[in-house]
Write a structure and sequence with these properties.
Layout lengths: L9 E4 L3 E5 L6 E6 L3 H19 L11 E7 L2 E7 L10 E2 H6 L1 H6 L2 H17 L12 E6 L2 E6 L14 H4 L1 H20 L3
Antiparallel strand pairs: 1-2, 2-3, 3-5, 4-5, 6-7, 7-8
Helix pairs in contact: 4-6
Length: 194
Amino acid sequence: MHIDSNQIEYLGRGANRYTIVHPENKARCLKLPTDGTQGANLNQLEYQAYQQLAARALQSDAFFVECYGLVDTNLGQALEVERLFLPNQQPALSLHQWLQDKSLQQAYPVNVIVAMIEQFTAYLIANDLPIFDLNSGNLMLCEHQDQLALKYVDVKSLLESKEILPISRWFKGLMHRKVKRRAERLKQRILSAQ
């Protein structure tokens, strides 16, 4: 696929990848590598994580964006995923954006956000999913089945470990405690916005 760099509509940027609106399908977006190798490797890792979710046949669409696969482009190999919108058809908002804007905090109250974080945490624990990177930039406020929802957009962390010995991935009790700790830390950030 050829992407005209003059026509790119940017959605976000991370350390090794950036996200743009799919040039041929506005309901999708592309995660592209910023540096070539590492970003491309992260796309492959994230695609494997999506395949693992699919193999487990979990009802994950309420909590994770849909993945359509890897796509070769002139800007590098991209991961093609669902583009998220709010119920009013505006672009989805990250919790990071929500934390920075008092008007968003009024539109989407703290108690609603905290309840959605708790639902997501319960889902992760019930399904033994070792997703520990619960930072405000990875969780998006969006619409799902005509309701406000919270979706996680960086599924590579399902497989990516920053631990030398990933024992919290090997033992469910440790995994659950770590997920709860990370979720609690995020909830405290949200509650501090009141």
